[in-house]
């Protein structure tokens, strides 16, 4: 029996455009899903990491004698035990696996312990005697370039200039501002964890919660001095990521201990160690000047942006490029001067986090647009619409936006939404909530707007691709499919999307997602809002190859049809190093928010009453998941606006716990009215547009704009803290 292609692709439910149940959903809500911290192996031992207590110091000596005497200890390792290259990094190999002669941030790994019990490992770790010569840390991002060099090439990681149009044009109305963005943590709930299992041939298997299996493997193999085929990685259950798992944490450490002892080694960070063990969002200082004519039309934008990369480069070079190229926002401006600098300091390392450079710039340029509206006597929405990008607009890099850019439409959608009812008398709905701090006295309401732009997928000529294998066979008399990639599921729902694509393309309802590992080609990183676009594109292409071989058959007997495809999106190009011109990005995503807040101006407390959003997603392959991504991104933007910050003093972290690092809870997150536009991108599979990051960019400045509207205060720094509102 044969079916036509149309019959094949319409024969089953659960395809694209629907919201089928997640294959991991029931296990997760019942608490039965196996996360990386649940890994177990017979005869395994436990690993622990000794970390530097100092932001900057020379290592004078390390004495392991007493640690090795602790009963139950199998190994105590230092940099001299690293058999391969003792350096790793996403873009620059500048970070040691274990410190050699200097530590550059508080929490830098210095030594490892392997023991029969985690408490034994911790006791032995405390007996390692390290003598430090403490140095004065470099902590100011604005002066870091001229400070003591922390690395051989100096403290400038990257400078990206953008030059377009006239550099000395004048304007009728000019507004300036200096803005600051604090260091935000990804705050994923599942701490770093993994299990390394050695093999008799000197190879190793690593089960790890990560965002990029193949780049992890490359770095681990280099440090172990092994060929990549002798290092095998399998994704374990991931309890959130948001960029914080794109860099290595204990991957090499666990493998080192496993190969040294010949035993499986499990490592799990506690919450405090997690704060030290992964990168964070770059803090930023941003100087902006906007010039406009009397009608509100932008004449020029000039900006100078500093991003604190901390002790090691991580993904700072790419974050700098994003902040620079997206630094004007979703607005048409003929004359642009931007200089963005990423620098080394002795603060905690910073790298990828949702929004990736666009968040920092977005807070500044949206604050400027509000300031410009006030100077012109225009409404905040009108001044934005006056300058809004559309399809065909030209970016500051000279790149033409060649798909939908509905900036004005998004703003109008959130503006036209009904406003919530007036301030409540129920204390649960007032700033401070059930702490009973107020009964409505001193509470003022404000409304604020913001819109943002984010690039989708990797940029600047990077070879961005994904590999997918689709296999079809007969199971119990009907066709069944299996899909295999190395693209990491970190909670965003990629496992569901891959099933939906296979069902749609092949008309096969039974679709199994195989474990994600390095036995198949690279799936790229689960970041840059790219996986549905790129891995989805690979799965779609693999299905097309399988469909061609099926040729309409619904009974293939004992035959197994198996196709593997490596799929790439259209090419990008490097930025000109002098002018910053070039087609650097694949695609742009846009979102707008309207925030409504109540502020207790006497106590400095804020309650976000409503946080409404409109976003173009190209096509909603899974509508429920799309809404979930918009809600989640908005929640992280709310956190940055009013509570989330890793606070440092002299390079030392003051609040490495969820007691003192606050994140929004269900009581902090308001109801959201969300409009999802589906304006297809003709260059993308199914017309899709990455969803996860844009709402994080516009939610923060919208909330701060609403607080400004309520209080009349300038509020040039996030997060906004009570003392900023009360002056105490």
Report on this model:
By secondary structure, this protein is an alpha+beta fold. The chain has three domains: 8-33 and 465-568, Aldehyde oxidase/xanthine dehydrogenase, molybdopterin binding domain (Aldehyde Oxidoreductase, domain 4, 2-Layer Sandwich), CATH 3.30.365.10; 45-135 and 191-238 and 245-277, Aldehyde oxidase/xanthine dehydrogenase, a/b hammerhead (Aldehyde Oxidoreductase, domain 3, Alpha-Beta Complex); 280-459 and 577-726, Aldehyde Oxidoreductase, domain 4 (2-Layer Sandwich), CATH 3.30.365. Helices cover 24% and strands 25% of the residues. The protein is built from 16 helices and 26 strands. The strands form six sheets. A seven-stranded mixed beta sheet has the order 3-5-1-12-9-10-11, sandwiched between helices. A six-stranded mixed beta sheet has the order 7-15-14-13-8-26. Helix 8 runs parallel beside helix 9 (358-376) and helix 12 (494-506) runs parallel beside helix 13. The longest helix has 20 residues, at 531-550. The chain starts with a helix and ends with a helix. Residues 30-136 form the Aldehyde oxidase/xanthine dehydrogenase a/b hammerhead domain.
């Amino acid at each position: 029996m044969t079916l036509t292609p149309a019959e094949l692709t319409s024969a089953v439910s659960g395809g694209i455009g629907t919201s089928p149940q997640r294959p991991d959903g029931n296990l997760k809500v019942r608490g039965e899903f196996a996360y990386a911290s649940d890994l177990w192996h017979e005869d395994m031992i436990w690993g622990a990491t000794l970390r530097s207590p100092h932001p900057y110091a020379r290592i004078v000596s390390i004495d392991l004698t007493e640690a090795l005497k602790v009963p139950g200890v199998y190994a105590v390792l230092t940099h001299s035990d690293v058999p391969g290259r003792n350096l790793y990094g996403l873009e620059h190999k500048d970070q040691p696996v274990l410190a050699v002669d200097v530590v550059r941030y508080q929490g830098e790994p210095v030594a490892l312990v392997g023991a029969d019990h985690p408490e034994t490992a911790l006791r032995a770790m405390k007996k390692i005697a390290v003598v430090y010569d403490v140095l004065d840390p470099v902590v100011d991002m604005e002066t870091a370039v001229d400070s003591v060099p922390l690395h051989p090439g100096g403290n400038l990681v990257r400078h990206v200039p953008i030059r377009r149009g006239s550099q000395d044009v004048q304007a009728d109305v000019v507004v300036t501002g200096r803005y600051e963005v604090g260091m935000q943590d990804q705050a994923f709930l599942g701490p770093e964890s993994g299990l390394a299992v050695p093999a008799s041939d000197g190879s190793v298997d690593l089960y790890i919660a990560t965002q990029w299996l193949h780049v992890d493997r490359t770095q681990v193999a280099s440090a172990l001095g092994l060929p990549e085929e002798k290092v095998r990685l399998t994704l374990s259950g991931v309890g959130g990521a948001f960029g914080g798992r794109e860099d290595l944490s204990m991957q090499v450490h666990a493998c080192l201990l496993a190969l040294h002892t010949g035993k499986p080694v499990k490592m799990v960070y506690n919450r405090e160690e997690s704060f030290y063990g992964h990168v964070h969002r770059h803090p930023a200082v941003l100087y902006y000047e906007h010039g406009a004519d009397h009608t509100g039309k932008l004449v020029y934008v000039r900006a100078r942006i500093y991003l604190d990369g901390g002790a090691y480069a991580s993904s700072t070079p790419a974050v700098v490029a994003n902040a620079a190229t997206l630094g004007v926002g979703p607005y048409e401006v003929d004359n642009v001067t931007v200089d963005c600098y990423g620098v080394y300091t002795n603060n905690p390392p910073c790298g990828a986090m949702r929004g990736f450079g666009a968040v920092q710039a977005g807070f500044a340029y949206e604050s400027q647009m509000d300031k410009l509206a006030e100077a012109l006597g225009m409404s905040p929405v009108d001044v934005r619409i006056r300058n809004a990008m559309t399809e065909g607009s030209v970016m500051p890099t000279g790149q033409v936006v060649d798909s939908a850019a509905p900036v004005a439409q998004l703003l109008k959608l959130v503006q036209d939404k009904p406003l919530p009812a007036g301030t409540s008398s129920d204390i649960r709905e007032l700033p401070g909530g059930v702490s009973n701090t107020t009964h409505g006295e001193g509470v003022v309401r404000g409304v604020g707007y913001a819109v943002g732009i984010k690039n989708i997928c990797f940029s600047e000529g990077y070879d961005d691709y994904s590999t997918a294998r689709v296999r079809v066979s007969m199971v119990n008399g009907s066709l069944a499919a299996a899909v295999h990639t190395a693209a990491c599921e970190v909670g965003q729902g990629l496992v569901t999307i891959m099933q939906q694509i296979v069902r749609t393309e092949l008309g096969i309802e039974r679709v199994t997602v195989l474990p994600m590992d390095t036995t198949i080609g690279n799936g790229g990183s689960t970041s840059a809002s790219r996986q549905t676009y790129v891995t989805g594109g690979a799965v779609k292409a693999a299905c097309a190859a399988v469909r061609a071989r099926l040729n309409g058959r619904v009974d293939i007997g004992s035959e197994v049809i198996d196709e593997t495809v490596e799929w790439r999106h259209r090419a990008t190009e490097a930025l000109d190093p002098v002018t910053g011109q070039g087609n650097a990005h694949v695609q742009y995503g846009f979102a707008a928010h309207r925030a409504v807040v109540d502020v207790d101006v006497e106590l400095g407390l804020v309650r976000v009453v409503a946080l409404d959003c409109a976003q173009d997603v190209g096509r909603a392959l899974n509508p429920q998941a799309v809404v979930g991504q918009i809600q989640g991104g908005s929640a992280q933007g709310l956190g940055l606006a009013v509570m989330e910050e890793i606070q440092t003093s002299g390079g030392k972290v003051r609040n490495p716990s969820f007691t003192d690092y606050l994140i929004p809870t269900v009581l902090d997150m308001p109801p959201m009215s969300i409009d999802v536009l589906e304006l297809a991108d003709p260059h993308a599979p199914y017309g899709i547009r990455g969803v996860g990051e844009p709402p994080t960019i516009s939610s923060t400045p919208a909330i701060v704009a609403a607080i400004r509207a309520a209080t009349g205060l300038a509020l040039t720094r996030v997060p906004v803290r009570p003392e900023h509102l009360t002056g105490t």
